[in-house]
Design brief:
The complex is a heterodimer of chains A (about 160) and B (about 500). With about 160 residues, chain A is mainly beta. Chain A has 2 domains: about 80 residues, Glycoprotein, Type 4 Pilin (2-Layer Sandwich), CATH 3.30.700.30; about 80 residues, Beta Barrel (OB fold (Dihydrolipoamide Acetyltransferase, E2P)). Chain A is built from 1 helix and 16 strands. In chain A, the strands form 3 sheets. Chain A has an 8-stranded antiparallel β-barrel. In chain A, strand 6 and strand 7 form a beta hairpin. Chain A is elongated and about 60 Å long. Chain A starts with a strand and ends with a strand. The mean pLDDT of chain A is about 85. By secondary structure, chain B is α+β, with helices and mostly antiparallel strands. Chain B has 5 domains: about 100 residues, Rossmann fold; about 140 residues, D-amino Acid Aminotransferase, Chain A, domain 1, CATH 3.30.470; about 70 residues, ATP-grasp fold, A domain (Dna Ligase, domain 1), CATH 3.30.1490.20; about 120 residues, D-amino Acid Aminotransferase, Chain A, domain 1 (2-Layer Sandwich), CATH 3.30.470; about 45 residues, no CATH class. Chain B has 18 helices and 22 strands. The radius of gyration of chain B is 26 Å and the shape is globular. Classes of the chains: A mainly beta (about 160), B alpha+beta (about 500). At the A-B interface, strand 1, strand 2, strand 4, strand 5 and strand 6 of A face helix 13 and helix 17 of B.
Chain lengths: ~160, ~500
């Protein structure tokens, strides 16, 4: 399983290979991970180095306390990541926004028409993928430009579906 | 001689006093508010009685009710701790009038030190140097104060005569600021103490806040237990204290000690008390005020002198002589105390309330934690934000700093934000390590981010852990549909139980 994990502002690409191996940014490390019963306490031994951590659910993210320092983390698998990117996370508020398919899937429905005014957060279309329907939203206020697809279309990953100007 | 003590307080200080009583074989009576029914001091005491609803004025400040409980339970003495009724001369008098022993000084000593203007006058008459400022104990009008201000000189401080905890205090840089500062200081004093009298004091720049602990028995024996360095403050609230002070030399220590003893004698002091002073960069010292009670930071003195101040207080109240003479008092090693508060150092020290779901207190060699909280404690807005005091001892100051760093790293609190990162940063600060700080350091020069820069961090480790935790959560969610490990279903168990009880 692959995850994109953001610690404060730094991104790590982490793949869980098996019970004792994890790759972090392409580097494979041996891990031994234990949780202490009924406590938010975790022990991690990475290549022989021992770390104790407290992990708890913060307001938005998991908070990880390691060696007296608190790290705010966001853990996303690839699908969640693409969804968030598609739903506008981190997209600039100006310029033309091109909605691209965050993953291969089936366009269930299109909620807008060309030339329609949209507000930030309005649903643009629904894309079914991995047996889940995902709402893709506009990252900002604007007017819908070209729509390149129709309901019922199958789309490949990164296929340009519509633009918002 | 009494054998049962009522502790008119809550939190860590109530537990501290309870511990001293236990060691002395004295029975204890706890009092508590509705918010504190589960508190450690209630569970720890021999007896416990409800005072009333959570707000202090309906519970811990109800002197009459506390005295009534003491009489009913057969307690022979009341220990007020610090805060609440500890420096209330009327309460001390009422305790005495009820035929009970007040573990603290006589009402006269409290009242003469409680009014700052009277205290300054008393000290000046006893030959104790005071911070330059207005003299006398008469009520000064705004016109008087405006006339006297240039004589005192700017910058200056407007202080409430009934003051404490930084309330009713204003810094004034020039004459133009005087009128508005006067009215706001008076307003704040009025609402905090019910009394708006103020006086002026010169603001000493670059001064350190150093206090001397004294102990006095009923036979006129007065000793001092040397100094505590308390300059690290924020809004006049102490955050971190150490003993001995890094700027102290033997000559100054002796002079300040003698003056502190003299000050205590001037008001026929008994029990434990503290003379707070300002020490300027030329090592001139000035009397600031006397705290007629046990101080929050008393443990650092206990660690470097070996004297149990609370037990000494009880011993004194029982009419015994001090167990030490001045010659017995030596300083061994160094001690530091960090006040761990439920406040967020990354968000302007905003208080943080909530449930402490998990807590791990540091331990091991040279570490002492005085606390009243436990996993399950709700930090409410009713009382102050201090969760605990972390105190360490080391053979040298450097050893104490290293030990404090270690202890802070062990300390874990889940559920509320704490100022532990502030203390960790302070332990890494070169200014602190060098002992180069004054009362303005925290507010004006201390920068958490600047000091933290370049320190080793572990974002990769945090990333691996966060990912593994999330991965496990996802896996567990996927497995939840799988039946339990037990081969017999819960429904079968239930029906068997029902048949058994038929």
């Amino acid at each position: 399983m692959k995850y994109i994990t953001t610690i404060d502002d730094k991104e790590f690409l982490i793949e869980i290979i098996d019970d004792t191996h994890v790759s972090i940014d392409g580097k494979i490390v041996e891990v031994d991970f234990e949780s202490v019963e009924s406590q938010p306490v975790f022990s991690l031994i990475v290549d022989g180095k021992s770390y104790e951590a407290y992990v708890y659910q913060g307001e938005e993210a998991l908070e990880v306390l390691v060696k007296g320092r608190l790290y705010h983390s966001r853990v996303e698998d690839e699908r969640e990541r693409r969804l968030r990117a598609a739903s506008g996370g981190g997209v600039a508020e100006t310029g033309t926004f091109h909605l691209k398919a965050p993953m291969p899937g089936l366009v269930v429905s299109i909620s807008v028409e060309e030339g329609q005014e949209v507000k930030k957060g309005d649903v643009l279309l629904i894309l079914e993928s991995m047996k889940m329907q995902n709402e893709l939203k506009s990252p900002r206020d604007g007017v819908v430009g070209r729509i390149y697809i129709a309901a019922g279309d199958s789309v490949e990953q990164r296929k340009k579906m519509m633009s918002v100007e | 001689m009494f054998n049962k003590v009522l502790i008119a307080n809550r939190g860590e200080i109530a537990v501290r006093v309870l511990r001293a009583c236990r060691e002395l074989g004295i029975k204890t009576v706890a009092v508590y508010s509705e918010a504190d029914r589960q508190a450690m001091h209630v569970r720890y005491a021999t007896e416990a009685y409800l005072l009333g609803p959570a707000p202090s004025r309906e519970s811990y400040l109800k002197g009459d009710k506390i005295i009534e409980i003491a009489l009913k339970s057969g307690a022979g003495a009341i220990h007020p701790g610090y805060g609440f009724l500890a420096e209330n001369a009327d309460f001390a008098q009422a305790v005495e009038d009820a035929g009970l022993e007040f573990v603290g000084p006589k009402p006269f000593a409290i009242s003469s030190m409680g009014d700052k203007a009277i205290a300054r006058k008393t000290m000046m008459e006893a030959g104790v140097p005071v911070v330059p400022g207005t003299k006398g104990t008469n009520r000064l009008s705004d016109e008087d104060l405006l006339r006297l201000a240039p004589e005192v000189g700017f910058p200056l401080l407007i202080k409430a005569t009934a003051g404490g905890g930084g309330k009713g205090m204003r810094e004034v840089k020039n004459m133009d600021e005087m009128p508005s500062a006067l009215s706001s200081a008076r307003g704040e004093a009025k609402s905090a103490f019910g009394e708006d009298n103020v006086y002026l004091e010169k603001l000493l720049i670059g001064a350190r806040h150093i206090e001397i602990q004294v102990l006095a028995d009923k036979f006129g024996n007065v000793i001092h237990l040397n100094e505590r360095e308390c300059s690290l403050q924020r809004r006049h609230q102490k955050l971190l204290e150490e003993a001995p002070s890094p700027v102290m030399d033997e000559d100054l220590r002796q002079r300040m000690g003698e003056v502190a003893v003299q000050a205590a004698k001037a008001v026929n002091y008994e029990s434990a008390g503290t003379i707070e002073c300002l020490v300027d960069s030329d090592k001139n010292f000035y009397f600031l005020e006397m705290n007629t009670r046990l101080q929050v930071e008393h443990p650092i003195t206990e660690l470097v002198t070996g004297v149990d101040i609370v037990k000494e207080q009880i011993r004194i109240a029982r009419g015994r002589k001090l167990s030490f003479t001045q010659d017995d008092i030596k300083i061994k090693g160094a001690a530091i105390e960090c006040r761990v508060n439920a406040e967020d150092p990354y968000n302007n020290f905003m208080p943080s309330t909530g449930l402490i779901s998990h807590i791990v207190l540091p331990s091991g060699p040279g570490v002492r934690v005085d606390t009243g909280v436990y996993a399950g404690t709700e930090i409410t807005p009713y009382y102050d934000s201090m969760i605990s005091k972390l105190i360490v001892w080391g053979e040298t100051r450097a050893q104490a700093i290293l030990r404090m760093r270690r202890a802070l790293e062990e300390y874990k609190v889940v559920g509320v934000r704490t100022n532990i990162p502030f203390h960790q940063t302070m332990m890494d600060s070169h200014r602190f390590m060098g002992g180069q700080y004054d009362t303005r350091f925290v507010e004006e020069e201390f920068d958490m981010e600047e000091i933290a820069e370049g320190k080793e961090t572990f974002p990769d480790i945090a990333a691996i852990i966060a990912t593994l935790v999330k991965h496990e959560q996802t896996e567990r969610a996927a497995h939840i549909v799988r039946r339990g490990e037990r081969d017999t279903s819960n429904w079968k168990w239930l029906s068997r139980w029902e048949r058994l009880s038929k």
